[in-house]
Amino acid sequence: MEMDNDDEYSKLFRRMNPPRVVIDNEACENATVIRVDSVNRHGTLLEVVQVIADLNLVIKKAYISSDGSWFMDVFNVTDCAGNKVTDKKITSYIQTTLESEECFYPTIRNSIGIVPTTEHTSIELTGTDRPGIMSDVCAVLANLKCNVTSAELWTHNTRVAAVVHITDGPTGKPIRDENRILEIKKLLCNVLTNGGTNNVRSAHTDVSIVMTHRERRLHQMMYGDRDFDCGESREEGCGPNVTVSDCAERGYTVVILRSKDRVKLLFDTVCTLTDMEYVVYHGMVSTENDEAYQEYYIRHVDGNPINSEAERERLIQCLEAAIERRTSEGLELELRTEDRVGLLSDITRIFRENGLTIKRAKVSTDGGAVVDTFYLSEASGNPVEAKIIEMIQTQIGQQVLQVKHNPFVKNSDKSSDEQGAGFFFLGNFFKHYPFPGFQLIRSCS
Asked: Which InterPro entries does this chain map to (predicted)?
């Protein structure tokens, strides 16, 4: 009852102090500036970043501060081509969504962001990664007359996690029959354990009629599967660099991340901090020459900073894992064609028969059209040979399957002008957007 009263008080306080979103295309020469002022609560930052990330906008710089019960963020964003966001539909959607009560206080959602839906049945899979595992999963679903409407698969540190949305093939409706759901779970669990021969770590399958924010759920599934502590030692200078230190004077823990920049990097790190129950009180994000820098002043939700070496090391491992899960160095192929039952099973089988393994995949359908993205490498981990790519395109169709990115072919067309203009430090920002006591925080760094 006390929790319900606290929740109702929070809603009342927010209605009396509604969020304010300002989208400005004049304040910055090469980016759209989004300012968000809102009542603060745990998860507010993630909600805002999630809205921006879901639109595939690139966050070039960000300034974060929460002072007591109030929260203020400033984001410098562009589209994927490096241009300002001028589409009125997009800017209106951002403003309307972030200013809505449902964004910050969803009425039907639990701690992992699940809401009921009548559109599909959701399958969550975690297990040990191996070549051909996605092909096997898709074959089982095709044999059971299930149509995959959308899916996302990640692999990291020998682990695999996937969220797959399916419907009944003949009717196109969600699958509700309990006996059929039990059969799906049984057969998929058999796939994840490789027919019972893979006992290194137990596999997990869950089926429900829910809608999940897939990318956040994938992070949670990988984290729950402890992918962060089962990898091989990384060579020095390779991959992301994360440091965690004390700011004893102000009672904060300081987290600094440096890594190669990419789309949704900020979402991945903020998602991990939030789900590990850390609160970001102040922070900044900047990019320069394809390199990203993130700096956070955090405490645990109980108000205490990190106070043990074990917790410090675990946070470092989890943030490194969160960055690496979406990092794909392999061949990127895009499939565009008409949807049909069994299509995904056929495509993944062709990849497997040509000796390729799927490192990451995103599957989507819209109005009967399919847009799928696959990140591939040879089963041995080596780059995919050009003749293999040609063979696959011949089997599937040159116009249907396109090479979006091959990291082993140099791209001389990329312009350095697409990158950010440089680092903007917190001190300069807070001259224009002051928050009480922040000047004292900088003395800790």
From this structure: ACR1-12, ACT-like_dom_sf, ACT_dom
Pick the most confident of 2-11, 67-76, 128-137, 326-335.
128-137
Q: Evaluate if residue 264 carries a pLDDT over 90.
A: yes
d(CA 283, CA 208): 37
Q: How many CA atoms lie within 13 A of 19 on its CB side?
A: 31
Q: In what order do the strands lie in the sheet with 70-78?
A: 20-24, 32-39, 70-78, 58-67, 278-288, 291-300, 252-260, 241-247
Residue type, 274: T
Question: What is the 3-class SS of the chain, one letter each residue?
Answer: CHHHHHHHHHHHHHHHCCCEEEEECCCCCCCEEEEEEEECCCCHHHHHHHHHHHCCCEEEEEEEEEECCEEEEEEEEECCCCCCCCCHHHHHHHHHHHCCHHHHCCCCCCCCCEEECCCCEEEEEEEECCCCHHHHHHHHHHHCCEEEEEEEEEEECCEEEEEEEEEECCCCCCCCCHHHHHHHHHHHHHHHCCCCCCCCCCCEEEEECEEECHHHHHHHHHHHCCHHHCCCCCCCCCCCEEEEEEECCCCEEEEEEEEECCCCHHHHHHHHHHHCCEEEEEEEEEEECCEEEEEEEEEECCCCCCCCHHHHHHHHHHHHHHHHHCCCCCEEEEEEEECCCCHHHHHHHHHHHCCEEEEEEEEEEECCEEEEEEEEEECCCCCCCHHHHHHHHHHHCCCCEEEEECCCCCCCCCCHHHCCCCCCCHHHHHHHCCCCCHHHHHCCC
- Write the pLDDT tens digit of every residue in 111-124: 333 333 568 889 99
Terminal C-alpha separation, the chain: 42
Give the separation between CA 410 and CA 419, rounded to whole angstroms.
Answer: 18
In sequence order, which residues have a C-beta less than 8 Å from that of residue 223 and are 6 or more positions away? 272, 275, 276, 318, 321
For residue range 309-322, list pLDDT tens digits in order.
Answer: 999 999 999 999 99
Contact 34, 74 (CB under 8 A): yes
